[in-house]
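Final report, Chapter 2: Outcomes

The project's central promise was a pipeline that accepts a single protein chain and returns its three-dimensional structure in a standardized token representation, suitable for archiving and comparison. That pipeline is now operational. To close this chapter, we reproduce one record exactly as it appears in the project archive, with the input sequence first and the structure output second.
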Amino acid sequence: MFLSGFFIRKYGTEKLLVVSLAAITIRNLVYAVFPTFGGAVAGQLFHSICFGLFHPAAVVFISERVPRRYLAVGLTLYTSFSMGLASVIGNVIGGFVIEGFGYRTLFVFFSFFPLIGIVAFMRFRNVVFRKTAVN
């Protein structure tokens, strides 16, 4: 995360969000394909890209697009949904998938969500996510 500012300035938030979502997909597939200690280490290395780039890029992305007077609300909603609600739903669904199909299926299944996020982001980024003129 300490290099995230450099990467945000160099590549921009939109590219980093897409790259980090792609890294989440790769990370989940690494866990599914290589259920070994080495696979776990490789997956954790990808996690540094996933979270280390996604979270700061998301905060900057929101800060650039939400009017200043609503910034606290925007960041609170982001945190609530991404770290609160997503964790609860993911754990509930993940438990059922693991019980019914196993860990490999869980990671393959959860690989699709970031891909859906990439497609939705690319499709709607110019419609919904315009930068605000006055912050």
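Archive annotation: Residues 4-128 form one domain.
This record, like all others produced under the grant, will remain available to the consortium after the project formally closes.
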